[in-house]
Design a protein that fits this description.
heterodimer, A: mainly alpha, Sodium/glucose cotransporter, 23 helices, 70% helix, B: mainly alpha, 57% helix
Chain lengths: 544, 106
Amino acid sequence: MSNVNTVTFTIVLVLFVIVTVVGFLAARWRRPEVMAQLNEWGLAGRGFGTFITWFLLGGDLYTAYTFIAVPALVFGSGSIGFFAVSYTIMAYPIAFIFLPRLWSVSRVHGYVTPGDFIRGRYGSRGLGLAMAFTGILALMPYIALQLVGIQAVLTVMGVNASSTNTYVKDLPLFIAFLVLAVFTYVSGLRAPAAIAFIKDTLIYVFVLVAIFYIPTRLGGWGHIFGTAQTHFASISPETKKPLGTFIPTTKSTGSTQFDFATLALGSAMALFVYPHIITGTLASKQRSIIKRNMSLLPTYAVLLGLIALFGYMAVADPVTAANVKKSGNAQLAVPYLFQHMFPSWFTGIAFAGIIIGALVPAAIMAIAAANLFTRNIFKEFFKPDASPALETRMSQWSSLVVKFGALVFAIELPHTFSINLQLLGGVWILQIFPMLVGGLYTRWFHRWALLAGWLAGMVYGTLAAYNVKNATASHWAASSDIVFGHTIYIGITAIIINIVIAVVLTPILRAAKVPEGADETLPHQYTADPEQAPAPVPAGLGAR
Amino acid sequence: MTQPDATPSAPRGPQDPDITAAKNPVAAHPVTSAAIGLLVAAAICGTLIVPIYAHITPKVGDFPFFYFYLLAYMPAVAIVLWIVTLLQRRLQEPTGAIASDPEVTT
């Protein structure tokens, strides 16, 4: 704790305390008559308008992934990291196609989770379970990524206790996480929604200042790009290959274009299937709000593009580059850059922005995972007559469990590039794309064919990701592997296997007259725009 | 609105006579619908097809083309999706008041 900058530390601490207070007070915001309702705790009453939805979805979308993981990859490997920019662009048109349909049908039927929809659409508890399991599993590494982000900032601040024991060393991280866990428990989705305002204000301020100020310190954009170009072309003494690529390369020089495109497409398809993004979507009160937000949210994407460039600034600043090299952790690139470039008070604001920017999505993710567990596992298989009050309590507790599951991922998996945590989650969540998005348009698929495809995709994706190794890690080292001579994102390969199996098995199962399951949705409900939020689950009448 | 989208849905779901009788908005406005499809597809393909923009030159200011293109593409997508939203509103107009204020009973 010797080299802690008091000013930076104080500002971070003060902002953290403010956020904590807001998190607890949020329980009173738009206070419902009964909080013990999953619609209330988990979806904040489904009453958010364009403005709050924008902040909430923005808070969902731009996370430690954006501020730490993407610039770290850009710092380490160059242009391939910009797949994230391409992906956030692509995500909106893709979501624009199917998200309004999901909102409408969920609104009409009072679905809280994507698992509810899948169960209702296919009349299959098994598919609902598959969705819930995948959602929870995929969210854990994503939450873990948030932890790694917070850890990176704390490391550069110097507040990590000097001990070799992981648990002692990361004590400040655990404290931050515990606070998050408690206010999520108390306030539900209202907490991250309220904090998202503070978070986004901080982030806009520090990103805009950084984007205009730092280049003036580093000799302008021309110099930054020039240094990066030279740097990534130089040959690494260890691997005898260039350090990275300055633009995605074509086949003749070892293709990264295919990797770039599949990573972007896979991530874009995965994004709006993630349960926490769907949670944010379902909390809005009108169909048109979803559509409007699809054209408003790309403004955040501009921010992401600029943040990715921080990776090159870190390359161009010799002090930062040396610091990162010494630590051997690319995740520290942005925190070191800010620490070196900004006065300590402004560093404090930026660091607080990153920490809070990790806490908000982590809270929403934990809520989404908890809702999946409660609705599609606990209520479905263990206690079908659970009252809304019991459902809510169950979700509150499972949100805590999910967070500790994420801690395991954060500690166990290698983080040469923490972006792999998110990409691994993407490999898994993509496997529900056929049943979820397919189901929004057609009942052609047979439910057991979808389940078989899902299983194949999950098994293939997990094994393929497990087997990727590099110089420093023997497993889970990356999320792309080589298929037919192309480097390709494992999520894409897995979803192709998934779809092929579902398509082949559907006619076979149908010919064999395997029962199809009842569909409780009607075609017009996919375009409906009801004024009233769905009525609470009837089982809850008088329940205590 | 009591009309289905252009997509096939629920071959085995309960059939609602109103729905099957209703006029398909896509069939009623082929040009607008095609424009919507084309715009959304273009928005996706513009970044999916990497060779389009994986070049260093021409530089825009100090920005190599690749980086300029990615940054400029985002506002472009926002505008395209906004136009699409407006076009979709036109699809719904012929059904008038019924379309703008749907009453869906379950």
